[in-house]
Amino acid sequence: MFHLKMKIFLDVGSHIGQTLEEVVDPYHSFDRIVSFEPSKVCFESLKTTFSNSTNIVFNNFGLSNETKICNLYDTGTDGASVYADKIDLRERNNIEQIHLVEAAEWIRNNTEPTDVIYMKLNCEGSECDIIENLLEKGVYDRIAHIMIDFDVRKIPSQHHRQEVILNLLKDKKNFHECSQVMIGNTHQNRIRNWLRVCG
């Protein structure tokens, strides 16, 4: 069956929609925007805030290296993480059980190889799990542009993985680190600058 090539934005770690506020702008011409937000509090807020946006798909789960149920520490905040030793957790005992889905499986089941996919990874430590999974399952190169915020640097048990991932990606041209492209005086301006760099 013929498949029309789509331009898709994957917002992995939507929180309350700071990135969505920018990418819904018709200027960016995304055919489909997919939000991944495992926190129920943030998820309900997203659906209310963007109720008039017809091209956003909201998912009340996160992406990871496997499909599972796990704890989200400091749920609802912008620093919430599946890693309990993240140093900037404010309410470590504020725990919610969340659903995670294997990233490679989701991409295979929900996109086509012809799609042009942009992926923002700001998921408070899960970024390394996701990148490793995409590489291991042969799906990584399906992503045209990836922006990675390495929050593992805030997690003592995981901070070494940033160097591991960067070594795995040393020959890849389709990713930017957050520090390289998130430039501007608001989050929306910083996302716009990254998309501009991507062309």
Overview of the structural elements:
The chain is of the alpha/beta class and 199 residues long. It has one domain (7-65, 103-198): Rossmann fold. Helix content is 28%, strand content 24%. The protein is globular, with a radius of gyration of 16 Å.
Quick description:
By secondary structure, the chain is α/β, with parallel strands linked by helices. The chain has helices at 20-23, 40-49, 103-110, 127-136, 161-168, 178-181, 187-198, and strands at residues 7-12, 32-36, 56-59, 62-64, 68-73, 95-102, 116-121, 143-148, 175-177. It starts with 6 loop residues before the first strand and ends with a helix.
**How is the CATH topology named?**
Rossmann fold
List the strand order in the largest sheet.
3-2-1-7-8-9
- Report the CATH superfamily: NAD(P)-binding Rossmann-like Domain
SSE run: EHEHEEEEHEHEHEHH
The poorly predicted ranges are none
What's the structural blueprint in terms of helices and strands?
Elements (H helix, E strand, L loop, with lengths): L6 E6 L7 H4 L8 E5 L3 H10 L6 E4 L2 E3 L3 E6 L21 E8 H8 L5 E6 L5 H10 L6 E6 L12 H8 L6 E3 H4 L5 H12 L1
Parallel strand pairs: 1-2, 1-7, 2-3, 4-6, 7-8, 8-9
Antiparallel strand pairs: 5-6
Which characteristics define this entry?
alpha/beta, Rossmann fold, 3-stranded mixed β-sheet, 28% helix
